[in-house]
Amino acid sequence: PLPPTPPHTHTPFIMADDETLGMLVPTHAGDVKKGAYVMLKGHPCKAAEIKTSKTGKHGHAKCNITGICALTGKKYVDIQPSHANMYAPLVKKTEYQLMYIDEDSISLLNAENEEYSVPMDQANEKCTTLLDAYNEDPEAEF
Question: Full-prediction pTM beyond 0.90?
Answer without folding.
Answer: no
